[in-house]
Amino acid sequence: MTPQRKAVLQLFLDRRGEHLSAEDVYDVLRGEKSDIGIATIYRSLELLAELGLLQRVNFDDDRTRYEMYDPTEGGHQHHHLVCKKCGKIIEVSDDLLEPLEKEITKKTGFKIVDHQVKFIGYCKECQESGD
Amino acid sequence: MTPQRKAVLQLFLDRRGEHLSAEDVYDVLRGEKSDIGIATIYRSLELLAELGLLQRVNFDDDRTRYEMYDPTEGGHQHHHLVCKKCGKIIEVSDDLLEPLEKEITKKTGFKIVDHQVKFIGYCKECQESGD
DNA sequence: CTAGTTGCAAATGCTTTGCTTCTGC
DNA sequence: GCAGAAGCAAAGCATTTGCAACTAG
């Protein structure tokens, strides 16, 4: 564990619930500790994701984002609601996906170990402010 | 509708159920009609997706893939099971997601118009051939 | 004719890699 | 002291864009 890796991890701890890209991390750490390279960020993010501390997420903006892994959620993580109008990301907990997974395993014999679920639509605010 | 666009669409019609990247399309059409540029492929794919004829899909291999949109499935499409070992993609129809979406809308007021669902795990064959 | 499309090549933007220097243990 | 890590800059890829030539209607 080097100071650079600690700094990256600490940033995610400080900003639980945010979805940061490598560039985001770079910009913040740049300000604090002037000497960190973008390559190191990429390497740290990959390492932390492999260690299970970070979770990769993707919102179709052509860059990989990461968020803190939350062990209290158990094996299943939350889902993301992506607003088509304002781009806001809303998180919802995972209640009803379990039965769907059980059903799929029963039908196909496929053993599910992870999932990626994203719902696209319009958030409450954007619906109200003139669709 | 130009001959190039027709050719791209025809390829997807001929290969229902496959998930083709721009490069895939390019390689095939290259063989047939020698004169088609990769830029045209990208532009055609985007156009056909906007027209609702193709559906964007993504399997974390760092390239955008497309598949035929199937209107018989109604608004809801099928899900993809991605095998971690052999990379095979299995399709399953959407049975149980509707209640989850209804629940989310009730709880959050978010109006869902589309979703992206992917399950990662191990297919039957890979489980049997020594995990 | 004329707007819209194509092909090519150059440009873009995210991410990875090579390699030398540095550093934690 | 040494294996592993960091920094920098160059390389890699998928995708996009500028632009002149072309083509469908």
Explain how this protein is built.
Two copies of one chain form a homodimer. With 131 residues, the first copy, chain A, is α+β, with helices and mostly antiparallel strands. Chain A is built from five helices and six strands; from the N terminus they run H-E-H-H-E-E-E-E-H-E-H. Chain A has helices at residues 3-14, 22-32, 38-50, 97-108, 124-128, and strands at residues 20-21, 54-57, 65-68, 79-83, 89-92, 111-122. In chain A, strands 1-3-2 form a three-stranded antiparallel sheet. In chain A, a hairpin with a 5-residue loop joins strand 4 and strand 5. Chain A is globular and about 50 Å long. The model of chain A has no long low-confidence stretch (mean pLDDT 91). Chain A binds chain B through residues 58, 60, 79, 81, 83-84, 90, 92, 95-97, 99-101, 103-104, 107-124, 127, and chain B through 58, 60, 79, 81, 83-84, 90, 92, 95-97, 99-101, 103-104, 107-124, 127. Chain A binds a DNA duplex (25 and 25 nucleotides) through residues 1-2, 4-5, 21-23, 35-40, 42-43, 62-64.
Low-pLDDT sequence parts of chain A: none
- SSE string of chain A, helix = H, strand = E? HEHHEEEEHEH
How far apart are the first and last residues' alpha carbons of chain A, in Å? 49 Å
- Multimerization state: homodimer
Class per helix and strand makeup of chain A:
alpha+beta
Assign an overall shape of chain A: globular
Biggest interface: A-B, 35 and 35 residues
Question: TL;DR of this structure?
Answer:
Chain A is of the alpha+beta class.
